[in-house]
Amino acid sequence: MSEELNQATDQATDQATAQATDQATDQAAIDANNEEAPVEQTEEVVQSVDAQRIAELEKALKKSEALVEDQKDSVIRGKAEVENMRRRSAQDVEKAHKFALEKFASDLLPVLDNLERAIQFSDKENEAVKTVVEGIEMTYQSFISTVEKFGMEVVDPQDESFNPERHQAMSMQENAELKPNTVTAVMQKGYVLNGRLLRPAMVMVSKAPSEPLDITA
Q: Span 101-207: which CATH code?
């Protein structure tokens, strides 16, 4: 009886020990799982935050690059506008220098015309006025030399081809000896100031003779 009791006690003890061991093993596995789960979750959270931060930085970088490019274009356009303004200003100053005397030069043309007429219609054979005529000629030549220093040129196209840009045809005259559109007479000289026409030369131009009418047919 005593042996049977001892055997029963040993079996109960072994079963209790096995149960306790199994429970302890299960609890240890549960605790291990519980300990690993927060570590994995933390790594995932860190990776997510890093990815979001990187995306934000890349977005900010692209925005900064776009801003830099826009500012660069603005600087280039501004520089081009400044250069254009500088070029236009230089051209305006150059034109002002060239044509500042245009009004004054135009007012001088009647004086030159009168000197020319005085020389043209004077009696150079008359000894009484010969000295006066020579004085007028010297004055005229001195006048022309002076205005030429300021860029004024005389347009005197006698026997030249007619140029509508510098000449004004007052009449046409048949002439078999000259080519058509040849200047046969200059009624009034023209003038140019630094390449710009002040006044066209008034001229007479030749034309081909007309064919006579055949009245025998």
A: 2.30.22.10
